[in-house]
C-alpha cells in the first residue's frame, strides 16, 4: 500500500494537539502544537549529521502541508 508523504492525525486524549506524520524516510511525527518531533527511525552518528540539515526542511514542509490542508477545509 502506498501512503501520501504527509498525513494528519489527531487523538481525543490530546485535544489541542495537531499531529503531522511524515511517512517517508526519515519517518517522524510532529506535534504542531509544541513542535515536538518523534523520530520513527534509528540513526547512526553519520546519519544524524545529515539529518540535522534535512530535518529543518522536512519540519517546514510538514507545517506547509498542514496549512494547505486546513485551507482546503475552509473552502
Task: Give the secondary structure arrangement, pairings included.
Blueprint: E1 6-9, E2 19-22, E3 28-31, E4 36-39, H1 45-74
Antiparallel strand pairs: 1-2, 2-3, 3-4
Summarize the structure in words.
The chain has one helix at residues 45-74; strands at residues 6-9, 19-22, 28-31, 36-39. It is α+β, with helices and mostly antiparallel strands. Strands 1-2-3-4 form a 4-stranded antiparallel sheet, with helices on one face.
Could you write a compact summary of the structure shown?
This protein is of the alpha+beta class and 75 residues long. Helix content is 40%, strand content 21%.
Task: Indicate the proportion of strand residues.
Answer: 15-25%
Count of DSSP strands: 4
- Low-confidence residue ranges: none
Structural class: alpha+beta
What are the main properties of this structure?
four-stranded antiparallel sheet, alpha+beta, 1 helix, single chain
